[in-house]
Design brief:
Layout (H helix, E strand, L loop, with lengths): L2 E6 L4 H4 L11 H13 L7 E4 L3 H11 L6 E4 L16 H7 L1 H9 L12 H18 L5 E6 L1 H12 L15 E8 L2 E8 L2
Parallel strand pairs: 1-4, 2-3, 2-4
Antiparallel strand pairs: 1-5, 5-6
Helix pairs in contact: 2-3, 4-5, 6-7
Bound molecules: 6-O-phosphono-beta-D-fructofuranose.
6-O-phosphono-beta-D-fructofuranose binds next to helix 7.
């Protein structure tokens, strides 16, 4: 793979409410973001687009590949968003109100914190790396691949290439109207954040 394009799904109904996890759909704005991404990549070969198994990434990829013959969407469960366990589908405000200990401990150590019956950034890493390895294997000699992922998943993938300090990883900016263009060969490293929407 020469070029790895790393995008996040567009806006969801959960995003509107600051609600985490779950499996919500893209909003009208999220669908427009997906169309903008498709327009941006209309002349770029995209033989493989990897997503998670969540509707928001599948909807984004479906619009990205609509009407194209070269564009195969492959969902990988390894790329699913961080499992927030008992906090799935809650808002950050609800967590702070109803489970203050979760909020406090996570604020103290966001990288090391593991949600009760869920995951944390440190535990997510192994799974996401397995997903990226699988994607690279399945895409063979393809020049370009796209991953449509999630906030915590994309932070983890970026940290793999950027070697961030672990305490910075949960704070990397992962917008929904930009993608990262990553080139990572032994002799050439490029990380570009490109606006498409
Ligand atoms: O809010 C969207 C989301 O993808 C959640 O599903 C996930 O729990 C969260 O982002 C991860 O971001 P943070 O670690 O900053 O809470």
């Amino acid at each position: 793979v020469r070029n790895l394009y790393l995008a996040r799904h567009g806006e969801t109904f959960h995003n509107l409410e600051n609600r985490i996890g779950g499996d919500s759909d893209l909003t009208a704005k999220g669908l427009v973001q997906a169309q903008s991404l498709a327009w941006h990549f209309r002349e770029t070969p995209l033989p493989y687009v990897f997503t998670s198994t969540r509707k928001r990434t599948l909807q984004m990829a479906e619009l990205l590949c609509r009407g194209r013959e070269d564009c195969l969407v492959i969902p990988l469960p390894e790329l699913d968003e961080i499992d927030a366990g008992v906090c799935e589908n809650m808002t950050y405000a609800e967590i702070a109100r109803d489970m203050p200990e979760v909020h406090e401990e996570r604020t103290r150590d966001k990288y090391g914190y593991v949600y009760p019956r869920g995951e944390g950034y440190a535990t997510l890493r192994e799974r996401v790396e397995r997903g990226v390895r699988k994607a690279l294997y399945l895409s063979g000699n393809a020049e370009n691949i796209m991953i449509v992922g999630h906030q915590a998943v994309n932070r983890t993938i970026l940290s793999h290439f950027l070697y961030r300090r672990t305490e910075d990883v949960p704070h990397i900016y992962i917008p929904q109207d930009r993608y990262f263009h990553i080139v990572s060969t032994p002799s050439r490293k490029v990380f570009e954040l490109v606006k498409f929407g």
